[in-house]
Structure to design on (485 residues):
């Protein structure tokens, strides 16, 4: 029973964290009216969560390796749940922003070790493939589910409940995790505590996420964006120097020597950058151009979530086990690129069924196949001692890729929309034109990801660790997935 319950507990915690990245989006107008946010400050309801979340994933994953992943997971759940309660009770903008920052930190701590616990807990290939499928569904569909739940809860009960709903789930998950999950001692402080490296990489990641956030609001050429980006690069360079000299580096260089891992992380970053525009820009198009309300907009992305669930839970584990992760990943990326390409031709006088729905099918199917394949490849080079760090890396790449993709695509969309308005286009035509450009750019990102997957994820043999991650009984066609140097 405990082995069946364990992945459900882990994924319940992960689902809460992923949902909170998007559930607040459709509630922003209600929050602004209730707490008196200015238009410029309203975006910080989202940013205050994203910055600590993106910055702390890598460090939290390493702490799980050192001090025990169960301990880190439960601690993150407690912090996240308590901060969610404070968010729901907030009566001022300041309290809400502080609580959102703490919530993002708790979310990072929880999320950073989830994949590592799944990989180390399930060593039998079939069980591991199914568990990774469940995890991938949560990772992939959580954002779109958040859009639907955010609209329903805001309309039915008020914006406070998008945070209150986390409390009973978080309490139950923390209690069950304490009872069901096996305790781990961890490697201990002497096996990799690098305080200076931790400060440098966390500061660098937070600066990078802030630079992306600033770019979305102030442009890529603004002093705020350039200053934050430069600070991120300087801190990252200092971190690299520190890792080369440290006796117990926080991020051992061996993590990047495995070709499948490096290729999977690069592919993942680009795929997420392109795909994440769907959640933001499709919502903008459905709300502002098609005139759908919050619930209708949320329902509009349900086909994506359903297909992700079907593919990642049922079909992807079998296909990966039969053909190998790379063979599944390549057509999945083609599907995602095709879906974004379809959205690149939306019309100002269009309709949901004619313009948006046809894209949801390849997007949902492609993403549901790609995520389990990428998760298995990204974890394929990790030893049991490094699994938390590898899990943190995978989630960090996803978060930074999503933030960067959103900043680039939303900036392109806004810039092109403004240019069309100045040329005399109607607001609907201008918004549609901006979204078209952004979707086409997202398709280019996914095409580059496909090229990396084709060229990098091709090696002559397959390692035992990759076979375990991918699934049972791989065929001869799966032998090119390993990526050993």
């Amino acid at each position: 029973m405990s082995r069946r319950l364990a992945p459900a507990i882990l994924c319940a915690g992960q689902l809460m964290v992923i949902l909170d990245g998007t559930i607040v989006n459709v509630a922003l107008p209600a929050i602004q009216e209730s707490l008196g946010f200015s238009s410029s400050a309203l975006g910080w309801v989202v940013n205050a969560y994203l910055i600590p979340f993106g910055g702390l994933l890598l460090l939290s994953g390493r702490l799980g390796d050192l001090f025990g992943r169960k301990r880190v997971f439960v601690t993150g759940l407690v912090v996240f749940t308590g901060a969610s309660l404070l968010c729901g009770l907030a009566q001022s903008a300041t309290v809400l922003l502080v609580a959102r920052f703490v919530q993002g930190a708790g979310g990072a701590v929880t999320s950073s070790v989830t994949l590592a616990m799944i990989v180390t807990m399930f060593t039998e290939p079939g069980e591991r493939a199914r568990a990774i499928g469940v995890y991938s569904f949560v990772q992939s569909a959580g954002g779109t589910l958040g859009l639907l739940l955010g609209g329903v809860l805001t309309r039915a009960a008020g914006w406070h409940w998008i945070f209150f709903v986390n409390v009973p789930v978080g309490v139950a998950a923390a209690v069950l995790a304490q009872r069901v999950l096996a305790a781990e001692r961890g490697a201990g402080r002497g096996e990799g505590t690098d305080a200076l490296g931790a400060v440098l990489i966390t500061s660098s990641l937070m600066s990078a996420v802030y630079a992306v956030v600033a770019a979305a609001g102030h442009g890529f050429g603004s002093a705020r964006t350039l200053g934050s980006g430069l600070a991120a690069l300087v801190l990252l360079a200092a971190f690299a120097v520190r890792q080369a000299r440290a006796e117990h580096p926080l991020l051992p260089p061996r993590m990047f020597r495995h070709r499948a891992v490096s290729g999977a992380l690069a592919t993942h970053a680009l795929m997420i950058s392109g795909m994440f525009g769907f959640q933001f820009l499709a919502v903008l198009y459905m709300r502002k151009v098609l005139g759908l309300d919050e619930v209708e907009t949320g329902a509009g992305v349900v086909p994506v979530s359903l297909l992700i669930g079907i593919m990642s839970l049922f079909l992807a584990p079998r296909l990966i086990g039969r053909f190998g992760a790379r063979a599944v990943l390549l057509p999945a990326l083609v599907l995602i690129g095709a879906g974004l390409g379809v959205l690149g031709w939306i019309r100002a006088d269009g309709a949901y069924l004619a313009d948006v729905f046809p894209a949801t099918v390849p997007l949902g199917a492609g993403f549901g196949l790609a995520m389990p394949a990428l998760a298995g490849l990204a974890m394929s080079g990790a030893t049991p001692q490094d699994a938390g760090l590898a899990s943190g890396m995978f989630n960090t790449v996803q978060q930074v890729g999503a933030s960067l993709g959103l900043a680039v695509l939303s900036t392109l969309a806004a810039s092109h929309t403004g240019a069309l308005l100045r040329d005399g286009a109607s607001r609907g035509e201008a918004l549609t034109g901006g979204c078209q450009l952004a979707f086409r750019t997202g398709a280019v990102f996914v095409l580059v990801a496909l090229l990396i997957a084709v060229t990098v994820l091709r090696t002559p043999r397959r390692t035992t660790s990759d076979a375990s991650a991918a699934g049972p009984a791989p065929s001869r066609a799966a032998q090119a997935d390993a990526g050993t140097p």
In short: The radius of gyration is 21 Å. The first helix runs from residue 2 to 22.
